[in-house]
Structure formats: structure tokens, C-alpha cells
């Protein structure tokens, strides 16, 4: 494909997607070490040398917002997961999958910052990249159940 025929890239979409990836990484680290103080850990993560120069300010700011919201509402999300997923308590889920689910449910279902279908698609894409072989299918199935539970009339 030549440069001229290449579709225009949606900068906001890419920035938001990158912020979601970073938020999942941070939530995963907090999940593994929950005794950390959240705010200092988040600022250390976002200020890491590998991120300091390479990430745009709007990416870091949206990541910060997502991470704070998903972490603050994780108990609510986990209770919701207990209601809709039979045989899989949140603490038994793979940590990466749990972090992806917490983020997607916070952003798309509780906060309604993006359409539910978009939240599911983003979560599945992130699960393909960061998760295990079956993570994308698992995340998709769980989020479909959450959507049916929260929005029985349709999202």
C-alpha cells in the first residue's frame, strides 16, 4: 500500500488504545503487589525512563485516569464478575485477564466512557497481545455475560 492510499490514522484512537495498554500493565503490577501505595506506584510507573520520553502527555493522563478509576472500583467489578461468571472466582483468574476485565468493565460498562461494544473489542485486542492463548476468548465471553447482565435490553 502506498503512503498516499494509506488510511488516515486516528491519533485520539491510538492514544487511547496505548493508554489502555499501559493501564492494564499498571493494574497487573498492582494486582501482583497490592500492598504498594497506589499513587506513588502510578507516578513511578508513568515516570519510568522507558515511558518518560516516549509517551505523549495525553496518553499518560488518560492512563492515569483509567488506572485510578479501575483500581478504585475493582471490588465492585469483582463482585459483578462473581455474579456473572460461574466457576471462576476473580482471584482464580489469570492476573492479566483480571486486569483487562477490570479496565474494560470500568471504562465501558460502569463509567460509560466508550460504547460497550468498543470496550469489548479493545479488551479482546489487548488480551490477544498481553494474555495467554485463550485470553481473548475468555475476556470476550466474560464481557458478553457482563453486558447481558447489566443491559438485558441491549447496550
Please name the defining characteristics of this protein:
single chain, 155 residues, mainly alpha
* Strand and helix order: HHHHHHHH
Mean pLDDT: 88
The residue fraction in helices comes out at over 70%
Shape: globular
Residues in β-strands, percent: under 5%
Sheet/helix structural class: mainly alpha
As residue ranges, the low-confidence spans are: 1-9
**End-to-end distance:** 37 Å
Give an account of the 3D structure.
Helix content is 70%, strand content 0%. With 155 residues, the protein is mostly helical. Helix 1 crosses helix 6 (95-110), helix 4 packs across helix 6 and helix 6 (95-110) runs parallel beside helix 8 (135-150). The longest helix has 22 residues, at 11-32. Mean pLDDT is 88; it is low at 1-9.
Q: Outline of this structure?
A:
Helix content is 70%, strand content 0%. It is mainly alpha-helical and 155 residues long.
SSE blueprint:
Elements: H1 11-32, H2 38-46, H3 49-52, H4 57-72, H5 74-84, H6 95-110, H7 116-130, H8 135-150
Helix pairs in contact: 1-4, 1-6, 2-4, 4-6, 6-7, 6-8, 7-8
Amino acid at each position: 500500500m502506498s503512503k498516499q492510499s494509506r488510511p488516515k490514522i486516528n491519533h485520539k484512537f491510538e492514544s487511547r488504545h496505548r493508554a489502555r495498554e499501559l493501564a492494564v500493565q499498571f493494574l497487573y503490577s498492582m494486582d501482583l503487589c497490592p500492598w504498594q501505595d497506589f499513587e506513588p506506584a502510578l507516578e513511578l510507573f508513568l515516570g519510568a525512563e522507558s515511558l518518560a520520553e516516549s509517551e505523549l502527555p495525553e496518553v499518560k493522563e488518560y492512563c492515569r485516569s483509567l488506572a485510578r478509576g479501575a483500581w478504585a472500583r475493582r471490588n465492585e467489578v469483582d463482585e459483578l464478575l462473581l455474579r456473572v461468571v460461574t466457576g471462576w472466582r476473580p482471584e482464580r483468574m489469570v492476573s492479566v485477564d483480571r486486569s483487562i476485565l477490570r479496565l474494560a468493565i470500568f471504562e465501558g460498562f460502569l463509567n460509560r466512557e466508550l460504547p460497550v461494544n468498543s470496550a469489548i473489542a479493545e479488551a479482546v485486542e489487548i488480551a490477544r497481545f498481553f494474555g495467554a492463548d485463550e485470553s481473548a476468548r475468555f475476556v470476550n465471553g466474560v464481557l458478553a455475560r457482563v453486558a447481558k447482565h447489566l443491559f438485558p435490553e441491549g447496550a
